[in-house]
Fold each of these.
Amino acid sequence: MAQPALKDTRVEEFEKKQEWWWVAEKRRSGRLDYLRKAIWKKGAIGGLYAPGVKTDLEQAVLTTNMAKSLEGSPDPYVVKSAKLFAHILDNKTIFITDHAQLVGYTGSLPNTMNWNPSIASILNSEVFNDPISIPEPVDKNQAVIQEIVDYWAGKTDLDKMMPVFDIDDLMKMLSGSIGWGVPLARGGYSNKDYEYIMTGNRGFQDIIDELDKKMDEIDDAVHEPTANKEIAMMYDRLNNWEAMRIALEAGIRIAKRYARLARIMAENFEEDPQRKEELLKIAAACEQVPAHPPRNLQESFQYDIFIQMMSRTEAIEGAWPCRPDYYHGPYYDKDVHIDKTLTKEEALDLVGEFLIRAAEVCQFKPKWAREGLQGIDGTWVWTMGGVDEKGKDACNDLTIAFMQAARLVRVANPTFAFRWHPQVKDEVMREVFECIRHGLGYPSIRNDPILVSNAMHWHGHPIEEARLWVHQACMSPNPTTKHGYQPMRMANATANCAKIIEYVFTSGFDPVVNMQVGAETPDVSTFKNFEAFFDAWVLQMRTIFSILVRSVNRARLLAPTMTPRPFLSGLSERCIESGQDTCDPSIARGNAWITAFTWVENADSLAAVKKLVFDEGKYSLAELKDALAKNWNGYEDMRLDFVKNAPKWGNDDDDVDRIMLRCLDACAKFSKELKCPCGNNWPILPENVSGNIHYANIVGALPNGRRLGDALYDGGISPGPGLDKKGPTAVLKSCGKIDHVTQGRAFLLNQRLSPTQLAGEKGFQLWKAYMRTWADLGLDHVQFNMVDDATLRSAQKDPEKYQEVIVRVAGYSAHFVDISRKTQDNIIQRTVQGLG
Amino acid sequence: MTTCQECKNFFPLEEDPNRGDCVQRVKDPRQAYYQAKPVNAEDDASACASFQKKQQ
């Protein structure tokens, strides 16, 4: 099955035309071609799910029925949670796709989206009201959904948590004006203790044996002839351990169900001897993992897939933190180079399928999440490259295989983020470049030495642990170590930062949601100088960040008892050791950050106010306030003045760049005053996903000349589309003025390059020179779109022909045809930088 | 009453023949696969559209 699908002489022609999607189709094996085309498109198109993709009612019914049967049970809540989890794994429908070598999916059928009704009633209502994804027969199933929605009303995690939050903060947060997401431990981005579970030292059964030992010891201890607080608390530890054991045992059982299905297929249905052998291999793999450590590459991938699938049964996961070349690399080396049980081509098939298995993962998401992550289900940003704990180059042959497989299967999700460092070999950089040149929009490039220092600066991770970082979501580094991994990043610490500058003009009143959200700063027209104006900006920033962070802190403190995660805890050394839940802040170092959406508008707006109002006195603040309140209507000449004659970020212009640094300094200072329950800091991380489109109708007119409804900048520290007029080096120089260690957690930079200019060896050398400048200036991130305007405009006109064109949106990639017209236009408007 | 154990799609568990899997071949618009759903041997299959009498 590892032979190319079709020999086609047109491949060279497609290469010349840079139609890389056709090249991929012709070059990949028959197996990969089948599996790639077998994927149901799960990312929402614009904000709506694709026809044929359906909400999975089976798991929702299983969850609800089990919850009802546990109502009268005397079990502690954490044990009930584990039993619910086990019931789903024991009873869900499983399947094995033709030609597949890896198995496991979040839903019960390939076209279904997992729906966990126990997490949030607001999500359940969206399932009920979704116009497309209710399975046939709609009337009957809508009644089933109604019953489930009714049962969970008042019982979901969010329903239980809401009464114990600060109601004022909660209303502001849920208004949708300043935040994005909800503060829940079972809804966000879970990193994992990969150093504990993915290093080949243990499988689930080994952990269960350890749990049994722990429980026996505590059982003896609590029955000693004494009594004290410690003994009283030991019962909670026993409950947590018991729950972890139930969850892990269920994990082993579902793997054995897959093994059994593979054997049934081999022994009863399959006639092709080669496929029969493959099915028996699948069976052997699923009998081995996750119960025991993997023995080869296939089992290592299978182990990882099972863990991800189970984690997504327990929670709604919006990200996929991992480092697959690092943790699976030793198995690739063993199979391909040492034991020679796999050829490189066969290994490439497995790697490609591993990407496909991840690409098809889906859980039903609320509309605001779908709009913010157009075209994908979540940000599966896989970390590649980097260094090991001793600081040595960790790139390996599997790093290269992942880059090659990505060009063959061309999925938009997962994407890669490559940890660049000075020791990376040229052959690896060339593979990375080829992916970018083929228009995948990934890998994004991360500056490893900067980010290791950053992790130490902000969160105090020791250097050996800081070096083992993965992306917890799109951008934020987090170590995969015992005390370093963060079990959950709650997405609502995501600030719609354009509101900071907007609220300076409205004294904190939000005209879109019609409520007082920000600080009641004085009427803007009373400010006599820029310093007073800037002070108001700082107060609005501190107010918005505090509202969001307070709710996450509260949720994190309550999570161990109110929303426990026994499965995730069972994969964690610190939880196995302590008997505490994975979210318990007392056993974690902390790795919190505030995602700063719509950030750069602040610098451009402040610079415009400084120049045109205070320095030149062309306009009064009262005039500007009126113009913004009227969405610039009647003030078009003035608006154009603010667009054209005020300095803009990204042009190496000190007037605006100094303001950017001043804003970041103010945030960095406040980040150290804000503390998470682990006692650690809350640095900001400017990036956007597609929040710049989601917020277009929520953010009012701004002093950078933007009107209500206009797309916001594409995010992070990227200049506004078309506003960076001085070339790529000026962009890098502006961004290089930021201290990427001490002024924030990470800074996203989108750049567009010309595929024509970067063709061939010369193109690679040009790009390398650009990357040297980037590294020398100390930037922590950059990512590239390398698809030309002509192709993108053709795709807008004739989407059917360009289904496979991929673009970099922000911290993620998506198929161009799956994003809204507004987002498409925003990408086309980005400046194409000429290098050299 | 027709029960699952009379169907050729029913594969009993070795350790507990009263339980097993209903294994079926499915072709959807994008892919073909085998699916397995846990069932009890005595479950009512009289309304099951996929029921196929097991050959004795």
Amino acid sequence: MRKHWQLYLLIIPPVLYFVIFKYIPMFNVVLAFKDYNVLKGIWGSPWVGMKYFNLFFHNPVFGTLLKNTLFISIYLLAASFPIPILLALALNEVRSGRFKRIVQLVTYAPYFISTVVIVSIIMLFLAPNLGIVNMLLGALGFHSINFLGNANMFRSIYVWSEVWQTAGYSAVIYLAALAGVDPSLYEAARVDGASRLQKIRNVDIPGIMPAAVIILILNVGNIMSIGFEKIYLLQNPLNTTTSEIISTYVYKIGLLNANYSFATAVGLFNSVINLILLVSVNFAAKRLSNHSLW
Amino acid sequence: MPSAKAKQTIRESYGDRVFLACVYILLTIVLIATLYPLVFIVSSSFSSPSAVSGGRVWLWPVEPTLVGYKAAFQNSQIVTGYANSIFYTGVGTLISVALTTMIAYPLARKTFYGRSGLMMFIVFTMLFSGGLIPTYLVVKAVGLIDTRWALLLPNAIWVWQVIIARTFFSTSLPDELAEASEIDGCSDLRYIWSVVLPLSKPILAVLALMYAVGQWNAYFDALIYLKTNTLFPLQLFLRSILILNANSGGLDAGQIADKQQLLALMKYSIIVVSSLPVLIIYPFVQRYFVQGMLIGSIKG
């Protein structure tokens, strides 16, 4: 220990960062079991036990929030997990290096556009009158549709714009895994006269399996914490029946209505479910495929 | 190269050629579907206000003009936001890279006692978090609300970046190097400063780029922690102009109709202007990002 005293000195600021901004908030979740009083502070406020959890579970909004949150994230997972894999497998078949590079460069680019800009692009494109999508529909003789004002379309808009933005980025990890496949396996496949499709099924897919399992675990573990940022910006009074999710609700009742204890309880519920999901999916993956996070 | 020749002479079967053709068609569709919205936005931003409002832009700019950009740069919110975002990105990236390196390097030293415990201490924050309100109350308690620090400190370290940096330090710097410097009586700090950092330029670039893009694009922390307009980053102004349609000062167009047309056009120009810094450097730094993701994916 004495030998590395300078390194211990070095970690003090980062460790302080984690203590202040990550660990103290974790202890602050006791707020969920208390009636928060600004004057008394978190620790001085009176205990109320499970009051806010009961309030949440018996609130009619509970079912809607849970349903919306799960529906959107499972839909997102179903689209955004396989598509990057397909994209990487397809790119791996391409022989022209230039075409491959161009496709990669272009599909990777939307990842770097900010959420605010993505949402405004969605709004501009789907605008009821002058949006390009409705003009196209009009030219084909259809009535214009108020996409963002239609609660039934909200999930698809969210999910497919997300796929548009992230598929190229997510494919990178699989392309790397494919590049790391032992070349002798391809030689063997060629000698055995395997078709391209057989080669994909028997060499490529087993090659990306470990990466795919890890990414699936991480995605499932995050199922309850889908991005607040984009959904909040896409929301409007017409689509909240399907777009209100746990995190946007926490923001609204917590920070906008200053109902700290209730919002903390809802947030804690969310975090705990996430943790349980992550641990159980990891356990299942370990059992089934021998690949896991820990 | 006889072997290369031999490979080329193996003709693909009919089925394989059909399959390959499908792959190319599919990828071309993906390419167009990704590229078209981007091209459309750039083209619109260079078109005339009436062409944009009249829906006459499909692929290339119609009646090319820079009116949209002029309006964007005359908008005081855009200018303030741009300046603020440059500040947050510059200073924030510096702080983040420094803090990340300070924790990642000791974690990579095998002789550093307590490294596995420290690693668990950090990784646990990825699995469980206090949530929005408890974090907000801490930021409030330390007095950062409505100050520039609120955007620089509360999310300064991303655990994923620590993992990437630690993997780099432990795989590409041989232990012998540290041992040799110890024998020469070089202190740890001196060793980091004059040996580790110069050898780690690629990973420092990756960290800096990822933090910079993250900081430039972020709006949520600003939304919850800031109240004073003059402190707002660009993204928050973009939200009010592009999404909430809040009209802003700096526009002196006379008639309402003209003004609305100009506003519609200005949205496209603003989108281009605000995404430009990231998209311009992106093709040049793409390989660093890919590198970063690859390093991160090695389980260390």
